Prior knowledge:
41% of the residues lie in helices and 15% in strands. It is of the alpha/beta class. Strand 13 and strand 14 (516-523) form a beta hairpin.
Amino acid sequence: xxxxxxxxxxxxxxxxxxxxxxxxxxxxxxxxxxxxxxxxxxxxxxxxxxxxxxxxxxxxxxxxxxxxxxxxxxxxxxxxxxxxxxxxxxxxxxxxxxxxxxxxxxxxxxxxxxxxxxxxxxxxxxxxxxxxxxxxxxxxxxxxxxxxxxxxxxxxxxxxxxxxxxxxxxxxxxxxxxxxxxxxxxxxxxxxxxxxxxxxxxxxxxxxxxxxxxxxxxxxxxxxxxxxxxxxxxxxxxxxxxxxxxxxxxxxxxxxxxxxxxxxxxxxxxxxxxxxxxxxxxxxxxxxxxxxxxxxxxxxxxxxxxxxxxxxxxxxxxxxxxxxxxxxxxxxxxxxxxxxxxxxxxxxxxxxxxxxxxxxxxxxxxxxxxxxxxxxxxxxxxxxxxxxxxxxxxxxxxxxxxxxxxxxxxxxxxxxxxxxxxxxxxxxxxxxxxxxxxxxxxxxxxxxxxxxxxxxxxxxxxxxxxxxxxxxxxxxxxxxxxxxxxxxxxxxxxxxxxxxxxxxxxxxxxxxxxxxxxxxxxxxxxxxxxxxxxxxxxxxxxxxxxxxxxxxxxxxxxxxxxxxxxxxxxxxxxxxxxxxxxxxxxxxxxxxxxxxxxxxxxxxxxxxxxxxxxxxxxxxxxxxxxxxxxxxxxxxxxxxxxxxxxxxxxxxxxxxxxxxxxxxxxxxxxxxxxxxxxxxxxxxxxxxx
Length: 689
């Protein structure tokens, strides 16, 4: 296959005449290879390469991924840095004013003109650095960068002896975090030479986010401290997770950086925070995407960072001990993007560990990028933790193999015993038990993972049942019905199921006035029919006549296609109302929320159903606690994730059915001969399949 790859494989060439082609190989001003300064440096490094090629085992360096990628990183970073220099003093050793060829240009600024910004857009750029100066300057700075990389990790800020990360859990539900951290600390010494691959399969609502931080802190060398990147699948949860770290782990702005998706997301998040406080409740191109913002106020002025890049956002991304971001802020490390966008994430992986939150949330199209990221994390020396309650065995094994392949390359270059075979230190943790085993290859890992999953399944069978579901059939008569009528009838059917769930004593709370109140979720698989269903629920005849005057429906429609401002307002309300922590027998904190209390007191009906009619955006990552749920079927993972939002904050076995799963998707009646379509949340957006 390699013999069939030519220059045209990368970018097919257009047909040109022989004279045009010859013109591209004619250099009237010569090339820098004729300059004495360039030839002197080239000869110096040619001698070093010759000596290296004659050393045993060093002749294949051009085929080694670690050497080539790190060398390319140093070269691109030096190119980025030197291209940004305009101070003649910094460029003095390499200046060559009389040389006729130039490497780059810069904007023609008018420093003394008050209209300089307007004028600058109409001015032609001016030549900046001559080609020979640029090449010599980049070579010199690439050498400095390469020499500084080995000590970079130990020179960057880290989280040392942070007490909240070591504090034992006072809540018995989270005692598993203590055991997991103890196990990680016990294998810390082994994980240094062998690498570490951790799988956290704790159930939804068991505190995996903080548990992951404690495990990675226990693995870190106490002398150097914790440096870790937490990569999320959803952009909307990045700020939320970062604030959880700040509040629960008592992290200040010098210890945590939060990579957000855009200025609008940040502004909305900070607005709701302020409201809560008020009420008491190219070479020189930027290294990071302009749409992103890094929230970090720590020290990013270390000499190494100053030398590596002048981009303040990139320095913050690299320097912060803890980074919370989305996966797509790190995947550029493995991609050859123009402008050097892979530099900052690659340096991050080179200097910290990696936690992947909900990696199974990505579809098949995302797996190559995710696998490359894990491979590079292993190649650059990071320890990797996968965190999700619904990890498929094939995904876990595939990411293990990718990490193992990367770690094998790392060991050849940076291990004290490079000839030893790879034998990864693997950990499995959940709320029931924790174990560790060294795995040298795929079959060993598969066997260990299978045994652990079997134990977990056995424990889940013995655990208290907090969600009990039943299947509700949809009528066959819908096949011949008009779509509008079918959606209206669907609204009637799901309201009927909601009413039946609400009536169960275990699915509602009673306030001081004797009113029965429940907060439930009706989750539809697609956004398209949700609008018509919502209108039907709002209609006066949505409830049977015998329930009129007895039941009050309070409806909230929630999906990802709302304008950002409106969606942010909805999420802020739901985050507050559906926080049921501290609930005890006879006391539900939701009943005392002012927004809910006002609605209950304003209507005399004895039964109040607060219903969120939502799309799949309701099921992943939201820290919401519902009394009951009615669900359209989609994927098994979707059902598991949604079940984690029923009685999420309240322990104790379910007193009866609190979930109803419809036996068919509504879309099935429109196209009965095809597999039903469903919507999946991808990177903060909902995509239909």
